[in-house]
Specification:
Keywords: ATP-binding, Cytoplasm, Immunity, Innate immunity, Leucine-rich repeat, Nucleotide-binding, Repeat, Signal, Ubl conjugation. This is Nucleotide-binding oligomerization domain containing 1. It is found in: Cytoplasm. This protein is α/β, with parallel strands linked by helices. Among the domains are: 114 residues, Death Domain, Fas (Orthogonal Bundle), CATH 1.10.533.10; 224 residues, P-loop containing nucleotide triphosphate hydrolases (Rossmann fold, 3-Layer(aba) Sandwich); 186 residues, Alpha-Beta Horseshoe (Leucine-rich repeat, LRR (right-handed beta-alpha superhelix)), CATH 3.80.10.10; 74 residues, Leucine-rich repeat, LRR (right-handed beta-alpha superhelix) (Alpha-Beta Horseshoe), CATH 3.80.10.10. Helix content is 47%, strand content 10%. α25 crosses α28, α31 packs across α33 and α33 runs parallel beside α34.
C-alpha cells in the first residue's frame, strides 16, 4: 500500500513536471509569435497599413527606432516600401518591438481601421508588459478629428445672437423644444426624446435618403438646435460613431462670385477646417472611403432656394472636380458626392424637397408649457422676476402663445429684464400684442444703450418709448436702410463698405442689430456682418420703407407686388435629382416668400393706428397718414380679390372653401394693422359655410389673427384646423369665436385637457356645434369627461372624433354614458385609445336600442373576446348602426359564434371591419356560414388575421368575406 502511494506520488510529480515543460514551451512560442506574425502576414500589412507617421513617432518615442532609422524610412519613395522598411527594422529589434508595433495598431483604432479585422483574425490580446507602454496618437486622421472637435467647441459654446458684447454660454440658456418626427406623408411618428435620436436610425422612412430634414417656422430654434448638436459632438457627448463633423450655413454658398469654382476638398479644408499634419493626404482619402463616418449640417436652406432655382447645370459626381459652390452643395445633398454621409438640413416650414433624398424628417414645434417654465428659470435668476413674468404670461394667452416661439420669447424676456433694470415699473405688454410690438420692444432695448448713464444708482422713474426712438433715429434709420438694401439684393450678409455707405459708424455696431460672421480683415475688424436674425432684418426693412421721405409713398408696396410675382412653391433640390423644368408664374398678392412676407407684415404693424403716435415722432405726420391710407386701400383691394378667387365646392356641410398658407399671411397682415374695417370686410367676404385651414402650419399666435377676423362674422361657420400646431395657447385665443362654430375640427394639434375645458365651457354655452374633431391629441380621461359633457349638452352634435388620445376604460365609461343619452349623435371615432374590455362593455350598454348612432369605431383599443361578446350581444338589439370598426383588437375564435349570431340577426349592419385580430379559419367558418342568412351585410373585412393563404381560399365563394 505504501509502495503504491509512493509510486502514485512520483507519477503525479512527473506529470506536473511535464506540464511545466509544456507550459514553458507554449510561453516560449508566445514570445516569438508577434515576430512570426509580422513575417507571416507581411504582405497584408504592406498593402493595408496607411498611417506611417504615427507608427514612426511611437517607435521613436519608445526607443525602438533611432532618428537615423526614421530618416531611412522617410527617404524611401513609396508608402509600401516604407512599410516594408519599418517591418524589417522592427523585426531586427526583436519580439518586444514587434509586439509594440502591433499594439500601436490595436490602440489607434481609427487610423488603422483596415487592420482591425486582421487583429480579430489573429485573436490579438496585448500582454501585460506591452499595455503599460505609452502610445501617443499622432495619426493625421485622429489629429484632424481632435482639431474639428476643438474648433467646434470654441464656436458653439456661446450663443452669439445676443449682441457683440453679450456672449451667453450655450449650456446656461439652451432649452429643449418639442421636436416632432414625421413620416413621408408628414404624419406624426412621435417626438424626439434626445438629440442622440436625430442622427440615429429610428424613424427613418427612406434608408436610401441622405438628408435629415429639420423644418420649423422663423425663430423656432432650428439654428440653436444645430448648435447644441454640434456642441454635444465636440464634447464627445453625442451617441454617434461620427469622426468628422462639418458645419455650414447655406447662405455661405450664395456669397461666392459667379466665376468661383471649388472642389469637395476645398469646401472641407479651406472653408471649414484645415488639416495641419497630413502630408500623404490620408484624411481626404479616409473621408472618401468611409463617408458613413461623416456628418454635415447645412443651416437655412430657405435662404438660398432662389439661387438654386436659377441653376441649370450638371451635377458634380467626382470629389476631385471643381464646380460652383451651389453645384457642390446640391450634389452633396442628393448623394452624388460622398454618398452615405449624413446631412442635417434646416429650412423654414413650407420649403419642400423631394422625398427621394430625405432620410428622416422632423418638425420643430417650439416650447411646450414645461419647456417655457424651464426657460423662465434659466433666464431669470431672481425668484421675484420669475413669478412676475409667469403671472403676466398667464394673464395674456396671445403673449404666452408668442413665447412658445423661442426667438420671440427671448426678445420678450430680454426686454423685460433690460427695461426692468432701467425703470421703476415695467410690465410685459398685456393688450393688443402684435409681432411688430415685440420687435419694437427689442429695438427700444438696443436704442436705449445710446442713453447717457444715470448720474446715480437710482432707476429712471418713467419710460418714454418715443423719446428713445427719437434719440436713436439716426442709427435706426441707417440700420433700416442697410436691411432694406440687403433685402432688395436678396442678401443676408453685408460688408464694411455697405455698412459705412448707409451712415453707420463703429460706435453704432455694438448696439445689437448686427453681429460679425466672418474672419477679421486686414485692419483687425470683422470683414462681414449679418443681422441678429433674418426676421429682424425684415422688420428693419419695413421700417426703412416707412421712414423714407424721398421715395414716392407708393414704394411701401414694393414687396407686396414683388410677392405677387413670385411663383408657387415647388420642391427643391429636385432639379438636380430628377430634371429641370420651367414653372409658370402666378400673381398672388399673398404668395409664399417668407422673408418678404415678414417685411409686409411689419409694414402693416408699423403703419397701424395704434403705432401712429410713435411713428409720428419719426416722420412727417402728413406723409405718415398718406402711407397709412395707401396701405389700407391696397390691403382692402387685395383681400377682396383674394377671397373672390378662392375655389368653392358643395358638401354635406354646405359651401366649402379650402384655403392655403397665403390666406394665413393675409390674416396676419390684417391683425397687424388692427383695422376693424378690413377685418369686417374679410369676415363678410368669407361666403362659405365651412372653411378648411388644415395643413396650413398655423401656430398658436395665428389664432389671435383668425379670431380677429371671425369675431366680426355674423353667420355660423364650420372651421377645420386639423394638422396644425395651435396647442392649448391657440385654443385660448380662439375662445371668443367658438360661439359661431358649427364644426370644430382640431385634430393633430397638440391639445391637452386644458383645451377641452375651454371647448366644453364655450360649446355647451352656445350649443351650435355639429361636429367635434379631436383626433390624435393628448387628451386623458379628464378631458374625455369634458367631451362627454359636450355630447350630453349639445343637441345638434352628430360627429365626434376622439381617437388616438390617452383615454382608458374610465374615460370610455364617461363617453359611453353620454352617447347613450344623446339622440343626435351619428358618428363616433374612438380608434387608438385604451378602453379595453371594461370600456367595450360600457359601449355595449350604450348601443342597445340607440336611436341615432350609425357609425362607430372602437379599433385599436385592446378589446379581447370578452368585450367582443358583449358588443355582439348588444348589437342584436340595435337597428341603427351600419358601420362598425373593430380593427386591430385582440378578438379570437371565442367571440366568433357571437358575431355570427349578430350577423344572423340581420339588424341592418352593413360593414363589419375585423382586420388585424386573432381569428383562425375556424372563427371565419362561423362568420361565413352566418353570411348565408344575411343579404344586407355588404362586407366583413378580415385581412390580417391568423389564416394562411390556403385557408383563405376556402372562402373564395363568399365575396363579402374579404381578406385583401
Amino acid at each position: 500500500m505504501t509502495h503504491n502511494m509512493a509510486f502514485l506520488s512520483c507519477l503525479l510529480l512527473s506529470h506536473r513536471c511535464d506540464c511545466c515543460v509544456i507550459n514553458m514551451v507554449q510561453m516560449e512560442e508566445a514570445k516569438v509569435s508577434c515576430l512570426s506574425l509580422l513575417t507571416y502576414h507581411r504582405e497584408l500589412l504592406v498593402s493595408r497599413l496607411r498611417s506611417i507617421q504615427c507608427i514612426l513617432d511611437n517607435l521613436l518615442a519608445g526607443g525602438f527606432l533611432c532618428e537615423e532609422d526614421v530618416e531611412i524610412v522617410q527617404r524611401t519613395v513609396t508608402k509600401t516600401d516604407q512599410v516594408r522598411k519599418i517591418l524589417e527594422l522592427v523585426q531586427c529589434k526583436g519580439e518586444e518591438a514587434c509586439e509594440y508595433f502591433i499594439f500601436i495598431i490595436y490602440n489607434v483604432h481609427d487610423a488603422y481601421i483596415d487592420l482591425q479585422p486582421w487583429l480579430k483574425e489573429i485573436n490579438y490580446q496585448p500582454s501585460k508588459e506591452v499595455t503599460v507602454m505609452k502610445v501617443v496618437n499622432t495619426d493625421p486622421i485622429s489629429r484632424y478629428c481632435a482639431k474639428l472637435r476643438h474648433d467646434m467647441n470654441r464656436d458653439t459654446s456661446f450663443i452669439m445672437s445676443y449682441g457683440q458684447k453679450e456672449e451667453t454660454r450655450l449650456e446656461d440658456l439652451y432649452t429643449d423644444t418639442v421636436v416632432e418626427v414625421l413620416n413621408n406623408c408628414n404624419e406624426s411618428l412621435g417626438f424626439l426624446e434626445s438629440l442622440d435620436q436625430l442622427l440615429g436610425d429610428n424613424s427613418v422612412f427612406n434608408p436610401q435618403g441622405e438628408i435629415i430634414y429639420v423644418m420649423g417656422d422663423a425663430g423656432v430654434g432650428k439654428s440653436i438646435l444645430l448648435q447644441k448638436l454640434q456642441n454635444l459632438w465636440s464634447k464627445k457627448e453625442l451617441q454617434t460613431d461620427t469622426i468628422f463633423f462639418f458645419k455650414f450655413r447655406c447662405r455661405m454658398f450664395s456669397l461666392f462670385k459667379d466665376t468661383d469654382q471649388i472642389s469637395l476638398r476645398d469646401l472641407l479644408f479651406k472653408h471649414s477646417c484645415y488639416p495641419d499634419h497630413d502630408p500623404d493626404n490620408e484624411i481626404f482619402d479616409y473621408i472618401l472611403r468611409f463617408p458613413e463616418k461623416v456628418v454635415f449640417t447645412f443651416d437655412g436652406y430657405d435662404e438660398i432656394q432662389e439661387h438654386v432655382d436659377l441653376m441649370n447645370v450638371p451635377e458634380v459626381v467626382s470629389p476631385e472636380d471643381k464646380a460652383s459652390p451651389l453645384q457642390l452643395l446640391i450634389s452633396l445633398l442628393c448623394g452624388k458626392l460622398l454618398k452615405g454621409s449624413k446631412k442635417v438640413l434646416t429650412a423654414r416650414t413650407g420649403i419642400e424637397i423631394q422625398s427621394t433624398v430625405i432620410r428622416k424628417k422632423v418638425m420643430l414645434r417650439g416650447f411646450s408649457p414645461a419647456h417655457l417654465k424651464v426657460y423662465i428659470d434659466l433666464h431669470f435668476k431672481e425668484q421675484e422676476h420669475r413669478d412676475l413674468v409667469s403671472v403676466q404670461l398667464n394673464a395674456s394667452p396671445y403673449l404666452c402663445g408668442l413665447c412658445s416661439t423661442p426667438l420671440f420669447c427671448w426678445i420678450v424676456f430680454k426686454s423685460f429684464r433690460h427695461l426692468h433694470t432701467m425703470h421703476d415699473s415695467f410690465h410685459l405688454p398685456d393688450t393688443c400684442v402684435t409681432l411688430t410690438n415685440i420687435f419694437l420692444l427689442l429695438s427700444e432695448v438696443f436704442l436705449s444703450r445710446l442713453a447717457s448713464p444715470a448720474p446715480s444708482l437710482l432707476k429712471k422713474s418713467t419710460r418714454c418709448t418715443s423719446e428713445t426712438f427719437t434719440a436713436g433715429l439716426r442709427p435706426l434709420a441707417a440700420f433700416a436702410k442697410l436691411a432694406l438694401q440687403s433685402m432688395e439684393r436678396g442678401s443676408f450678409i453685408c460688408n464694411q463698405e455697405e455698412i459705412s455707405a448707409c451712415g453707420l459708424t463703429e460706435e453704432d455696431l455694438p448696439l445689437g442689430f448686427l453681429r460679425p460672421v466672418s474672419e477679421i480683415d486686414a485692419n483687425g475688424s470683422p470683414a462681414t456682418f449679418e443681422f441678429l436674425h433674418v426676421t429682424l432684418q425684415s422688420f428693419l426693412a419695413a421700417f426703412a420703407l416707412v421712414l423714407d421721405e424721398q421715395a414716392a409713398p407708393s414704394s411701401i408696396l414694393k414687396f407686396f407686388t414683388e410677392c405677387s410675382r413670385k411663383r408657387q412653391q415647388f420642391c427643391l433640390p429636385v432639379d438636380f435629382c430628377i430634371s429641370s423644368s420651367s414653372r409658370s408664374s402666378e400673381k398672388k398678392p399673398f404668395a409664399p416668400n417668407e422673408h418678404l412676407q415678414f417685411t409686409n407684415l411689419f409694414l402693416c404693424g408699423l403703419l397701424s393706428k395704434i403705432n401712429t403716435g410713435l411713428m409720428g415722432h419719426l416722420l412727417s405726420p402728413v406723409l405718415l397718414r398718406k402711407k397709412q391710407a395707401l396701405l389700407k386701400s391696397y390691403l382692402s383691394t387685395s383681400v377682396r380679390s383674394h377671397l373672390q378667387g378662392l375655389p368653392h365646392h358643395s358638401a354635406s356641410d354646405g359651401k366649402v372653401v379650402h384655403v392655403l398658407s397665403n390666406f394665413l399671411w393675409m390674416l396676419r397682415c390684417i391683425f397687424e394693422t388692427g383695422s376693424k374695417d378690413i377685418a369686417q370686410m374679410t369676415a363678410k367676404g368669407i361666403t362659405a359655410e365651412f372653411i378648411k385651414l388644415g395643413y396650413c402650419n398655423i401656430y398658436s399666435g395665428d389664432c389671435t389673427a383668425l379670431n380677429f377676423v371671425l369675431q366680426h362674422r355674423k353667420k355660423l361657420l364650420g372651421v377645420d384646423m386639423d394638422n396644425n400646431n395651435i396647442s392649448d395657447y391657440g385654443v385660448m385665443q380662439l375662445k371668443p369665436s367658438f360661439c359661431k362654430m358649427t364644426v370644430v375640427r382640431l385634430c393633430v394639434n397638440h391639445l391637452s385637457d386644458s383645451s377641452i375645458e375651454i371647448l366644453a365651457e364655450e360649446l355647451c354655452k352656445h350649443k351650435v356645434v355639429k361636429t367635434l374633431g379631436l383626433y390624435n391629441n393628448h387628451i386623458t380621461d379628464a378631458g374625455a369627461k369634458l367631451v362627454a359633457q359636450i355630447i350630453e349638452e349639445c343637441p345638434k352634435l352628430r360627429n365626434v372624433k376622439i381617437g388616438n388620445n390617452k383615454i382608458t376604460s374610465v374615460g370610455g365609461r364617461y363617453l359611453a354614458n353620454a352617447i347613450q343619452k344623446s339622440t343626435s349623435i351619428f358618428d363616433v371615432g374612438m380608434w387608438g385609445n385604451s378602453i379595453g374590455d371594461e370600456g367595450a362593455e360600457d359601449f355595449a350598454q350604450a348601443l342597445r336600442n340607440h336611436p341615432s348612432l350609425t357609425n362607430l369605431s372602437l379599433s385599436a383599443n385592446g378589446i379581447t373576446s370578452k368585450g367582443g361578446k358583449c358588443l355582439a350581444e348588444a348589437l342584436k338589439e340595435n337597428k341603427v348602426l351600419r358601420i362598425f370598426w373593430l380593427v386591430q383588437n385582440e378578438l379570437t375564435d371565442v367571440s366568433a359564434p357571437h358575431f355570427a349570431e349578430l350577423i344572423k340577426a340581420n339588424t341592418g349592419l352593413s360593414h363589419l371591419w375585423l382586420i388585424g385580430n386573432q381569428f383562425t379559419v375556424d372563427g371565419m367558418r362561423h362568420l361565413a356560414e352566418a353570411l348565408t342568412h344575411n343579404m344586407e351585410l355588404k362586407e366583413i373585412c378580415a385581412k390580417g388575421n391568423q389564416l394562411s393563404e390556403e385557408e383563405e381560399k376556402e372562402f373564395q365563394s363568399e365575396k363579402r368575406l374579404r381578406f385583401h
